[in-house]
Amino acid sequence: GKAVGVTVDTDGILVLGTGYVNKDTNEVCQPSKGVLKTGDLITHVNGEKITEKEELIEIVESSTGSLNISIVRNG
Fold it and tell me: Which residues are bridge partners to 38 per DSSP?
């Protein structure tokens, strides 16, 4: 087969799906349940504009508490 590349330019981080996380206590949880949906566009975290997945990962990893996430849903 042929390799195909797809690029999607957005003004934030597009949520393609949500999943489960293993906590330090070996408990499995779904932190985005009821909060994020496939197709949401995450535009800001704690008031800071984000455009790259790496920025979101860095903020989440350095967080010790709740996050304030701004999203665009259905336009």
Answer: none
Instruction: Report, as an integer, the average pLDDT of 18-27.
Output: 84
3-class DSSP assignment, residue 54? helix
Whole-prediction pTM: 0.74
pLDDT for residue 24: 82
CA-to-CA distance for 3 and 41, rounded, in angstroms?
A: 27
Strands 21-22 and 28-29: antiparallel
C-alpha to C-alpha distance for 61 and 3, rounded to whole angstroms:
33
Q: Taking the CA atoms of 64, 55, 67 and 33 in sequence, report the sign of the dihedral they define.
A: negative
In the prediction, which pLDDT does 34 show?
85
Token duo for residue 62: 């350095």
Contacts of the segment 23-32: beta carbons below 8 A, 24+ positions apart = none
